[in-house]
Design a protein that fits this description.
Layout lengths: L8 E4 L2 E3 L3 E3 L5 E4 L5 E4 L6 E6 L5 E8 L4 E6 L5 E10 L2 E6 L5 E3 L2 E5 L2 E6 L6 E4 L2 E3 L3 E6 L5 E4 L2 E3 L3 E6 L12 E4 L2 E3 L10 H6 L13 E3 L2 E3 L3
Parallel strand pairs: 1-4, 2-5, 3-6, 4-7, 5-7, 6-8, 7-9, 8-10, 9-11, 9-12, 10-13, 11-14, 12-15, 13-16, 14-17, 15-18, 16-19, 17-20, 18-21, 20-22, 21-23
């Protein structure tokens, strides 16, 4: 990654890599050759599997990130990001995290065991982002999105066995508040009352909710199936 120039493809052969990778080069595609066989392992000591710092058009594909103290994949102040065919396990904050970033796509991902949220998009308006074909389970929150919205779509995904399912929310501790204009359509949301997942305080307090919009406005929530919350 450090040697790459804009527009290059970085291929990763199967193996376990004990690394925390920072990306500052635009238009990179980082692609594992085997989703289950290419594993970034933070050993509960490293902070982020792959962190993209302000770079444009960076895509991460077809790999697993696990055991990081903060996040599996993290885009900050980036434009045109994409996470495809990603698995995350046991991350201290988020599995896939986009902050102050726009023009994003998170697809075909499975996020498991994040203390805060499996998937997070925050502090952006308009976000111009889509989350689709995601499975998020056994996290504190399946999805969290603080002060995000504006052409932000959460569609055709499964959110189950988290403390709470889908949680767009407003908070004065980040910019772009309030949360607004998020579209949540065609999702399967069930059994989000899991008592033994890692969880932040908000997830503990809100446990047992499928779709919970805390302080948000002008959202569209329709044609979702929400079952078995108690």
């Amino acid at each position: 990654v450090d040697a790459a120039v804009p527009g290059e493809l970085v291929m990763i052969e199967p193996g376990v890599y004990h690394e925390a990778v920072d990306v500052t080069t635009d238009e990179l595609t980082i692609r594992g050759t085997d989703r289950d066989g290419v594993v970034l392992d933070g050993d509960f000591e490293l902070d982020n599997g792959i962190r993209v710092l302000g770079a444009r058009g960076v895509a991460v594909e077809n790999l697993t990130a696990m055991n990081y103290t903060n996040n599996g994949l993290f885009w900050v102040s980036s434009q045109g990001y994409r996470a495809s065919y990603i698995t995350t396990y046991r991350t201290g904050d988020y599995g896939i995290y986009a902050f102050d970033s726009v023009g994003g796509q998170i697809e075909y991902a499975h996020t498991i065991g994040s203390r805060d949220a499996g998937v997070y998009i925050g502090q952006c308006f308009p976000c111009d982002a889509v989350i689709t074909d995601v499975i998020s389970s056994h996290n504190g929150l399946g999805y969290s999105g603080t002060n995000s919205g504006g052409n932000l779509l959460i569609v055709d995904s499964v959110w189950h066995n988290n403390r709470v399912g889908i949680v767009p929310n407003s908070g004065s501790y980040e910019l772009c508040y309030p949360e607004r204009e998020t579209t949540i359509v065609g999702n399967l949301v069930y059994d989000n009352n899991q008592p033994d997942t890692p969880a932040i305080d908000v997830a503990l307090l809100a446990q047992g909710n499928g779709i919970l919009i805390a302080g948000g406005i002008r959202n569209v929530v329709e044609r979702n199936r929400v079952d078995d919350h108690f």
